[in-house]
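User: I've been going back and forth on whether these two constructs are worth ordering. Before I decide, could you fold them both?

Assistant: Sure. I'll take them in the order you sent them. The first construct and its structure tokens:
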Amino acid sequence: MEYFEIFLQYQGWLYLLLLSLLEVVLGIDNVIFISIITDKMKNPALKNRARSLGLTLALIIRFVLLGMLSLLIHLIEPIYAPWFGEFNYEDLVLLVGGLFLIYKSTLEMHRSVKHEEEKTSKNELTFQSVVTQIVLVDIVFSFDSVISAIGMTNGMEKELNADPIAIVYLSVLISMLVMIRFSGIISDFIQKNPTIKTIALSFLLMIGVFLVAEAFGHNIPKGYIYFGFGFSMFVELLNMRIRRNKAQ
């Protein structure tokens, strides 16, 4: 029960709200990737199942990482640095994940530009293939999410005189429940609007570039790319409204 003593103070609830919002924002890229990759599945039931399973696995991976905080601390210690300077396991995960996102985003953008529709069963992704790709990306994004959550709670224990780990767990749970609830809506919206899909793929491509840069020690604030994505979405929604009015 000592872990929940932090909720006896109003600051504990405030931190829970702020951290939950942060986790939702950090999970947007995860939801977008899952929405795009599951779009290749023709069976609606399997598509919904893969989407829900992917986000559920993301939640489980985050909880596992939170339960391995002592190991995560060791992951940021240098292991190999002849060419890259200080390089560690966390950097390796970010590098592999970033390169994977760049590859998948570029491939999907190429298919969209070439108008290559996935009409044949040969091109349709299997359920196992989709889940495997989702798990790989979940691991990368979970690292980012957990490390950000831990960083935000630094100093919270001294300020509130209570262990903040309960807030971290609850914020992760709340954010994933929110994403599971709205993932279907986001997926359908992206699928029905090709221009939105292009913006989403560009966003994932930039996230991949940022992850690779971060792996090599270049820490670029992700707020820039989230702001750019939000502004691009706002402009495109205005364009969609204009096109709809002209059509009418």
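The second construct, handled the same way:
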Amino acid sequence: MRFSLKQLAVFEAIARSGSVSQAAEQLDLSQSATSMALQQLERMLGHPLFERQNKRMALTVWGNWLRPKAKKILLDVRRIESGFAEQQIISGDIAVAVSQTAAEHLFPQVLRELDQDFPAVKVAMSVRNSEQVIEGIRNYQYDLGIIEGRCDDNQIQQEIWCHDHLAIVASANHPYARSAAVSFAQLERAQWVLREQGSGIRAIFESALHGHIDDLNVWREYEHVRVIKKLVAEGLYLSCLPFLDIRESIARGELVELNVPALNMKRPLTFIWRRDALENPLRDCIKLQARRVVRSIEPKVS
């Protein structure tokens, strides 16, 4: 073998952090030893793996090709070490990015199930909007993502987890709350408070309105659903939110789901990961537990 596991570990740490100094700190090596290991690996492979961009180390084409394969080798090594140490066979660290709705209403139960059944699996969870999750998966920042809707990037593999639907909501005091049905013309006249551009909710909503409403009166845009719910409940705005986010507010009478017969906004919650990523038992373990969680609470989710 012309290269070592240490060199692959150095390469992966630099790719993950974008910095030789940070990689050295993570691996408990000196910066000079870390730089030397990278130089030796690049010399043995005959190709540069990084280029400097704004003081950060960015992967080259060859680096992008090598990274998933190096991650697979390092994961297998950790599994071998764990097995001989009589630890859990499924163990290790995985970075997961989750869109807001799933993070608030579904994924905490997935983590509880994992802690019970696979305590040696350590999940680093980030909450992002769908566009940010996709970008993080594309850039190897996360091993697994959960988004609202679908992804059109052919670099990314996707698999539907479950379904939710988006609802048009108003306060109980809004004039539309007393209507048996609401038309597109009424929606066009209303003031709206919506999720920010880039969120899966916003993309699905705008796609559903395409060809029906040319200019929606968007009064405010916010990242956090709780802010939007409070504004709608206490004002005369409309919003479009996942049913999972509003079902309790509807049950308490704070919000009303409007009947818009012409709109069908059922949407999937979808697992995504890089298409070039090799087998990852931690990713498969999370997906399995997530499916069990959804089965336990159906039909509330769909």
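Notes on the second construct follow. The two ends are 52 Å apart (CA to CA). The mean pLDDT is 89.
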